[in-house]
């Protein structure tokens, strides 16, 4: 018998269609009840097809090769004390945010795709969800392994899973993924695979990983490029899923548009944390948040939604607000975190004079007028009175859970504040985008676990700041407050042989 080798298409067909069968004991509506309640109409599941036609053997071979290369770099990084080759210890604080805010999302995405792979009725999306679930789990594991080297030498990496569940500002990513988890399967893929991964993921990975390279962090760079090839595949799948829904039935169009409006705004607000990482936390900067937004959303996203317009899909609602905010969002957020730096698991600081000049050059219309004066005020205040901290934590938006610190889109001198009333109670929002999301599903968002409210209600370890920090497992004076006064800075100066490191104490040398 001739041993005929199967083509890639034949292998993919064997993996998907040939493993599916028509059930005889139960109707499909009882086996996959979750595919109906969201209002999406699917007539032919076989129309959905993975554009990569990825099979299991090809998947394992491809991923194994990437793992070998990644772990060789991680080993070399550790053996050569790569942590000493980064540009400055301030850079490490961006990694602390990444580990506590992004890595848990990778793990939660793994759980979500494993779930909806069971909920979809078609074999094509079932296999794609299974492979993406494995991808997301692998990303979480490799991020943990990559950043573990820093945990040996710097503070703040010690309890990131615990912090993700409890620390006040980490409720921003946690509430986002909880919102995704409580969605149906179609909304789940519209949220993660399309709105986040296709439309916005480049704003997370490309500038941040380029920043890691520019700041000498080759381990994180290698992880980033390893994950980026998966993300590129996820992006393509996300677009295919959206087109699949739109092509199946015209009644799907308004449902999909509503999800794109909602998840664009939710994901944009989540990524605003990246803006301050790019503009303020990288000692050596590749590009500004404004430049990244113009490249990865205005140019790339514009072409995408022009293509989708043939299905009746328009650019997400409030995208024009995000464009107006690109000149302000990073400055407003870093200022806020500087003020509440006593309750963060990373250090904050006043930008150096040359860094202020860089910001002026990147934001010529806004920075010198609205934001440089506050940094100069805080610098003078520190010289005369010591480090300034806010008296308490800020009020949070009921939907995105980011502090209500953003200004009106057309007036940066006035705070943007919206509210809605539901069943006798008033709820507060940072923007029209978040208010719209609440008004569409108020029953969902009235249940939000708002950290600052929980503190006042006595659910976070106690009424004193020290008790709340202990409940968070943030070591006061070590993990938080100003970088200038931190053990991380003292250690860094000692390792670099700087003369002003004489003040280092033995306690500063031992990460928690």
From TrEMBL:
UniProt keyword Electron transport, yes or no: no
One Pfam short name: Phenol_Hydrox
Coiled-coil intervals, chain numbering: none
Domain YHS: from-to ranges: 407-449
Protein name, as recorded: Phenol hydroxylase, P3 oxygenase component DmpN
Family annotation (SUPFAM superfamilies): Ferritin-like
Swiss-Prot/TrEMBL keywords: Monooxygenase, Oxidoreductase
Molecular-function GO term, any one: monooxygenase activity
InterPro entries, per the entry: Ferritin-like_SF, Phenol_Hydrox, RNR-like, YHS_dom
